[in-house]
Amino acid sequence: MNAARTTSYYPWREEYVTLPVPDSSGTDASIGLLKIGDPDASTVMLFLGGKEGAAAGFTALGRTVAAVTPGVQFWAMDRREVFLTDTSRADAPLDEALAYYLEGRYRSPEPANFAAYAEWGLQVLVDDIRVAVAAAAEGGRKVLLGGHSVGAAEAVHYASWDFDGVGGHRSVDGLVLVDGGALNAFRGAGMEFGIDLDTARGWLGGIRAGGVFETETSTSATLGFDGPPESAAQFYKLAARALLEQPTAVSPLAAHLPARYPVPAGATNHEVFAALVNLGNAKPGYGVTAGHFDGGNWVQDGPTRLGVVAHAHSLGAGAFQWHTLNRTLLDLIAADSLRQNEITELLGLRGLHAAEIDVPVLAYASAFTNGSSLDAAKELAQLSAISRLDLVEDKALSHHDVLFADLPANSLVRAIASFAGSLTA
User: Fold this and answer.
1) pLDDT of residue 9
2) What's the pLDDT score for residue 6?
3) Exposure pattern of 113-135 as b/e (b: 16+ CB <10 Å)?
4) What DSSP designation does 251 have?
5) What is the pLDDT of residue 282?
């Protein structure tokens, strides 16, 4: 993922760096930052991924935002759990990578070996975001904190979090909430965030008994893949590489596709990846609007190009995290109301400053939440001190189109450029 390009006409740098982050257990930990654009920009747009969204998934969005928004550099953050995975063969020659991950050589991590990470929840995450925000703010730069999907919820929780008596919102200059947020932002997509005290206690007990990684709603379970939670992320990575390196070759991956992704006999790598991400096959939160095959020929008839999606999934460990921490998911659900109660007390959650959030907010919605994420943003503005709330909705794009679609179709890029530009002028 490391690359750098600078010319006398257009300063530009694209690099991936890691930063150490403190951990009370004494365990070494790091976050990753993908930085795209002019390193001398006066503003950093720092983005957080969804429940399983990794920094690589923001490559296309970051490049476009940085290119069309003068004075703004785009950063995307990898959470510390990204570095818990065995990616040792992910970028090996394709045949070797396929053999390692699909033919039984790869071994899923034993949860007992990761007991130290059982308490890596929302407190740890917001502390890590604080490290990234501080790095972004160096030299007096403005920081706009954004998030996609569950990442939007994380941005809100950061803004409301109590850091030694000071709300997180005091360290940022604006929030960008894309297709998500707190306050039941996902109800329009059929996902209600609610939990009772007994369920929270049971869930916490299960985590402390060894359930470090979330499994029931993992990417693999959601997308119909058998095997451990990381199976789908690995498959996406390999399928993306196969499309980019050998698009017309008969795909060795076809036999491993779940039945919900139909492909013809002798399917090519192009056909396999197209089936994998096609909006008609994938869950609504994962598909893109790209095109279709007609008589064996690919017809591009959507705003998103398959190659752009594949490129993101081919980088590093891919565009999806291989594991999601169970404690983080529990905490996100428990904290969703932005109000303190007996469950947040049990979990030690400190979202104490929601009413004080006073920074400008851009809330953007695709077709994914059917408007509920915008309703949640309005509710956030009502319970806080937010004086500027920009609302943008584009039902022509899917939840993942907004990350990958080209201009001029990508209204998220235009919305971010307008919002950021008004704050940096």
Assistant:
1) 54
2) 47
3) ebeebbbbbbbbbbbbbbbbbeb
4) P
5) 80
> What are the residues facing 72 on neighbouring strands?
43
Structure tokens at 66: 């940085």
pTM strictly above 0.70: yes
Tokens of residue 253, six digits: 């991956």
How high is the mean pLDDT of the chain?
Answer: 93
Q: Map tokens 């403005």 to a residue.
A: 142
Name the DSSP class of 408.
Answer: T
Average pLDDT over residues 128-143: 98
Residue 224 token pair: 């119909």
Contact 311, 404 (CB under 8 A): no
Query: Residue 39 has which token pair?
Result: 């390193």
- In 3D space, the residue among 8, 83, 77 whose CA is nearest the CA of residue 36 turns out to be 77
**Residue type (1 letter), 22:** P
Please identify which residue in the block is written with the tokens 């399983």.
52
Do residues 246 and 273 touch, judged by C-beta distance below 8 A?
no
Give the residue among 89, 97, 107, 83 at the shortest CA–CA distance from 17: 83
| pLDDT mean over 150-157 | 98
Strand partners, 59: none
The answer to whether 230 and 221 have CB atoms below 8 angstroms apart is: no
Query: Rounded to an integer, what distance in angstroms lies between the CA atom of residue 255 and that of residue 263?
Result: 10
Residue among 296, 297, 290 at smallest CA distance from 276: 290
From the list 134, 180, 136, the residue with the least C-alpha distance to 157 is 180
CA distances (Å), 300 to each of 222, 362, 412, in order? 27, 31, 21
**Per residue in 95-121, pLDDT tens?**
999 999 998 889 888 877 788 888 999
> How do 43-48 and 72-78 pair as beta strands?
parallel
Instruction: Report which DSSP code applies to 264.
Output: -
Per-residue pLDDT of 211-233, as tens digits, reads: 999 888 888 988 999 888 999 99
- Tokens describing residue 422: 């008004």
Is pLDDT above 80 for 258? yes
DSSP 186: T
User: Which two three-digit tokens encode residue 216?
Assistant: 């029931």
User: Residue 330: left (phi > 0), alpha (psi -120 to 50), or beta?
Assistant: alpha
Query: How far is it, in rounded angstroms, from Cα 94 to Cα 84?
Result: 22
**Token pair of 317, please?**
């460990």
User: What is the 3-state composition of the chain as percent helix, strand, coil, each rounded to the nearest 5?
Assistant: 40, 15, 40
Name the amino acid, one letter, at 383: L
Q: How many CB atoms lie within 10 A of CB 226?
A: 10
pLDDT score, position 310: 98
